[in-house]
Structure formats: C-alpha cells, structure tokens
Amino acid sequence: MTTDVEMKETQAPSNSISNGNSATLLQLKESASLIETGAYAREVRRIVRAVRLTMQVRRKLNTSVLSSFLSFTLAPGSEVYSRLISFLPKEDEHEMEVDTATSAPVVPAKHPLPELEIYCYLIVLIFLIDQKRYNEAKACASASIARLKNLNRRTVDVLASRLYFYYSLTYELTGDLAEIRGNLLSLHRIATLRHDELGQETLLNLLLRNYLHYNLFDQAEKLRSKAPRFEAHSNQQFSRYLFYLGKIRTIQLEYTDAKDSLLQAARKAPVAALGFRVQCNKWAIIVRLLLGEIPERTVFMQKGMEKALRPYFELTNAVRIGDLELFKTVADKFSSIFKTDGTHNLIVRLRHNVIRTGLRNISISYSRISLVDVAKKLRLDSPNPVADAESIVAKAIRDGAIDATLDHANGYMVSKETGDIYSTNEPQLAFNSRIAFCLNMHNEAVRALRFPPNSHKEKESAEKRRERQQQEQELAKHIAEEDDDEF
C-alpha cells in the first residue's frame, strides 16, 4: 500500500508539467494562426494581438515547448530551423515531452511565411533573455536583424519593432551597447526609406537611449531635431520619447519644457510600467525643484513608489526649509542612489536654490537683518561668509527672488513690505496657464479617438468582401510575378 501511494505522488507533478506544456504550445500555435491570418488578410491588428498573447505566456516557455513549436512551424531540415534549434539549451532529463495531440488545427507550413519566421526568432530571443543566456541571445538577435533587412512588408513591422527592442536590450545587458550604434542608425535609415513609422519610433528611442547611456546629450539632441516627425503610433514608444526629451531638456537648462515632457511621459505610461513611472517622477521632482517649485506630498505617496521616492522626499524637505547643512547631509546619505539614477549632477545645481529659499524665508521673517546674521542662518562655510552673503543677497535682489534693498555701508539687508498679490497680474497668469493646460488635454483626447475605417459608408456584404480580398490577392500575385521577371 505504501508503494502505491508513493507512485501516485511522483506521477502527479509529471502530469501537471505535461498539461502545462501542452497548454503553452496550444497558445503559441493560436498566436501563429493569428499571424498567418493577419499576413494573408494584411490586418496588422491580428499580429499585434498575437504578440500580446505571446507576452502573456513568456514565463511558461521552456526548451521542449519551443522545440515542438519550431518543428511544427518550420521545415525541420531548413536553415532557419537548424539555426534556431542551435540557440536553445539542451533539454532537461526531467522535462516531459509535449503532447501534440491536443494542438490547434493549424496545418504546418512547409514554406513558412516571413512573418512566422520572424515570430520564431522573437520567441526564441525572449526565452534566451529570460533564461539570462545573453551570449546566445546576442547571436540570435544579430541573425534576426540580418534577416529583417531583406524584408519589406507592412505586416512584419510590428514584429520587427519588438526585435529591435530586444536586440538593443541584449547588448545593453552585456555592456556592449556602443557596438550597435552604427547598426541602429543604418536600421533607422532603412525604416525611413521603407516608410516603416513604427520602426522609426522604436529605433529613434533606442538611439536616444544609446546616446544618453554614454552621456552624449549633444548627439542625442542633433538626432532628435533632424529625425522625421509624424503622428505617434505607439503610446509606449511616445512615452519613452517624452522621457528622453525631458532628460535632454534638463541638461540643456530648459527646465520648463523638461517639466512638461516628464510629467506627460508619466501620465501616458501604462499602469503596469511602474519602474518607468518612478524614473519619470524622480526626474520631474528634480526639475520642479530647480524651477523653484515644491512638489506636493501626494507625489511621493503614490502607490508602489513610496520607498523609491523616499530619498527625493527628504531632499525636497531640505530644499523647502532652505537648510543648507541638511541638504548636504541628505545628498551625502543617498549619493549612491542619485548616481545610479543619473541625477547627482542636477542635485549639485540645487545648492543655489537651497540658499535662495533660505534667503527668501529670512527676508519674509525680518524687516532688517545684518549680513553677518544672514551668513550664520544660511550656514555658509566659505572663508569669507559675509562677502558671500552680500553677493548672494545682491544676486537674489537682481533676479527678483526677494523684494529688498542692500545697505552696503552698514552691512544690512532691508526687506520691503509685501503688497497685495491680487493687485498684480499673477492671478491672471496662473488662471491662463490652467485654461491652456485643459485645452491642450482636450485637444489630445480628441486626436486620440479611434473610429472604424469607412464607418460612414455602407457596410459591404460577406460575398463582396471575399471578392475584394480575392482581387487584392490576385493583384499582389501579379505584381510579384512582374517583379520577378525584372530580375
């Protein structure tokens, strides 16, 4: 009796593994069926749906599932099949074979479509990256890019954009990102000539990321300014572009434009992209501090971001108080985090803002104060703090940061009485900026609306639709034959 119980316990996991592999293989075949249907009907949305379904099962992929899928989709003796199989690791002895009896009713293609071939490259590359086999992933990505250069089909654009992303990711993970910069520029030029707008978006973002990774901000701005502009096709790619644009504008001291780009990138980013939204908020907080603004407390209390934004919360508190010594303590305490985020150089710029904030608090609190006391309250640690305090006060008065006068002979700073702000144009300007923001958001929402094609026309019957598709296929075949004849 005991042996029977032990046998049942050892067989249960194997059955569950076999069922899981069969379900994963079935989902991959369904995605391949969608890609095949979309390629023949020239419907890109079907291919987009297939890619989304693949991303849902990427954690369930293993060697046996991929081997069975490649054998099903590609011809076993073909060059593509042999190359992709060589990238896969050897199967584990404990892995169960996949049951192909419950597979989707799709006929295996002896001569697979280019879309299916690129799809096989994509899933193998994703599997290698998830398994942290970066050397094999680099080889697979390079082979897929070489194959993509020979294809010019609109139905391949969605798959190609994903391959471009993982191609750059593999080289970034291995620290060889500079090696593919020339290849990315070549691919961007090819995508522009082929009017592949989705590929242009993806490659432009990859090139900007490549330049910013090595702090080449001038080259990134030159590329961005000269790249062709068109309406965004992918919300994710547009969010990345706005984030990179915000970083470039921040380094160029254009803080107002940088703030708008970073906040817009954080709003447009998907909810699931938590790490990306955290980075956008980190840079936006620094830019707002450089502009003299103090972010609201709710910014640091967003769900899932409290721990990541804690250093920036303490930094904001030091800037708000105007305490230079506290600012230095926070900067030294979290210096490693700031260097990792790439914001350490920007935090060095904040020192002047901290001094100016402290000086503004002093001018509000005292109608007249000596420069010696100003230096003590600002905690200036220079060799001649009084002279430095005088120059800081003079510069703040000239820039309009404080409303005061400087008595050089007696060494005093005399603050003027604060007037009624409603007698100025500031309320009108603030109200105007809010109206402009609301109108801009409304215009973007209207542009983002999608309508079905030819919705104003009479719907065609199923018979007419079949005739139209047949005519389009015959015309495409005739054009392909003419192109073959030219060679």
Automatic annotation (TrEMBL):
Query: What region holds the PCI domain?
Result: 239-420
> What segments bear the compositional bias annotation Basic and acidic residues?
455-480
Which residue intervals make up region (Disordered)? 1-20, 452-487
SMART domains xref list = PAM, PINT
What Pfam families does the record tag this protein with? Answer: PCI, Rpn3_C, TPR_PSMD3_N
Instruction: Please give one Gene Ontology molecular function term for this protein.
Output: enzyme regulator activity
Q: Which GO terms describe its biological process?
A: regulation of protein catabolic process; ubiquitin-dependent protein catabolic process
Q: Which GO terms describe its cellular component?
A: proteasome regulatory particle, lid subcomplex
The entry's keywords:
Proteasome
Q: Which residues form a coiled coil?
A: none
Q: Where is the composition biased (Polar residues)?
A: 11-20
Record's function text: Acts as a regulatory subunit of the 26 proteasome which is involved in the ATP-dependent degradation of ubiquitinated proteins.
Family, per entry: Belongs to the proteasome subunit S3 family.
Q: Which PANTHER family match?
A: 26S PROTEASOME NON-ATPASE REGULATORY SUBUNIT 3, 26S PROTEASOME NON-ATPASE REGULATORY SUBUNIT 3/COP9 SIGNALOSOME COMPLEX SUBUNIT 3
Task: Report the protein name in the record.
Answer: PCI domain-containing protein
